[in-house]
Specification:
alpha+beta
Length: 226
């Protein structure tokens, strides 16, 4: 299956209006039918990604919400999301796709790096910014993604870094991901699979760079076991 059916969005729209367990129980067969088609679409993406990358795991996020610590007690998500994890410790970065009426997007990168990884990335930017700036300035990358979201920055220089450093605009980031939004018309178009794969593949030079950064020390010595 290489397309997303309109029925999947119709279901999500109705779920948003009827976000309770009784309605879901009554419409469980429709939910299951849509999930079967969507999982086939995810599998097609994974297969295409594997032509130039190596995908270790496809994770379909649950439709059930975790409401334990949320004021919003509605039980279900009104979107369907999936992530594709790259195989091996030497491959960093991950691909993400969200399908939601009026709010679909793909994303990729490093949303919440562990403290050690975050420090390593910042140290790299402090030492040398040429390669990351070249990637961010690539015409295709810049056109489709823009750049890192400035709302995911600390307000001042992180501890141990100078606020006057010429690369402070990069160092202040605490997340290093990009995204691209899709209209509903794009989601239902016959070429949507190609478009998603194209955007994911645009991330590869960025992933290759960050993989090199996160698997070596500042001297370029590998941190991985041989």
């Amino acid at each position: 299956m290489s397309t997303v059916p309109k029925s999947a969005f119709e279901f999500l729209k109705n779920l948003k209006k009827n976000n309770h367990r009784d309605w879901m129980t009554e419409n469980k067969k429709q939910y299951q039918a849509n999930e079967k088609v969507l999982k086939a679409f995810y599998a097609a993406i994974s297969e295409r990604l594997n032509e130039k990358d190596e995908i270790e795991k496809t994770k379909v996020f649950r439709i059930n919400r975790d409401v334990r610590f949320s004021k919003d007690k509605t039980p279900y998500n009104v979107h369907r999301s999936v992530s594709f994890s790259r195989a091996g410790a030497h491959r960093r970065g991950g691909y993400y796709l969200r399908l939601e009426p009026g709010n679909s997007l793909m994303a990729g990168g490093f949303f919440s790096p562990e403290p050690a990884d975050l420090l390593r990335i910042r140290k790299e930017f402090e030492m040398d910014d040429q390669e990351i700036r070249a990637i961010l300035a690539n015409p295709g990358f810049k056109k489709e993604f823009g750049g890192f979201d400035p709302s995911f920055q600390v307000k001042t220089a992180p501890k141990g870094f100078s606020k006057d450093h010429p690369n402070i605009d990069l160092i202040k980031n605490k997340a290093f991901f990009v995204n691209h939004a899709y209209t509903d018309a794009e989601v239902f178009a016959p070429d949507f699979l190609d478009k998603v794969v194209y955007h994911f593949e645009l991330l590869r030079p960025y992933f290759d760079y960050m993989s090199d950064v996160l698997t070596t020390d500042l001297n370029g010595v590998s941190l991985l076991d041989d």
